């Protein structure tokens, strides 16, 4: 895999992972959450933020593995994380809009 395709793959994985907490009511898209009898399951906002944080590190690990396959792995300093954390949150914007800002028909 060359540099360009691995970069686009990392971006696509980041986009999918950033929107995962907002498009379903399961934890990490796999684990069903318990709710009150008769009530639909509902993840809290804090659980979605925690899930987003964990998925950020998962995507970071995948990107690190992709980078190590194509050559030298660059040392990341705090500026790298100061850019990638807000970028990951921006990638989550479509899921956030669909979950919280879209008007639903009754």
TrEMBL record:
Q: Which domain of life is it from?
A: Bacteria
Transmembrane regions listed in the UniProt entry = 6-24, 45-65, 80-101
Q: Which Pfam families match?
A: DUF2818
Keywords on this record?
Membrane, Transmembrane, Transmembrane helix
Protein's recorded name: DUF2818 family protein
Q: Which InterPro entries match?
A: UCP019883
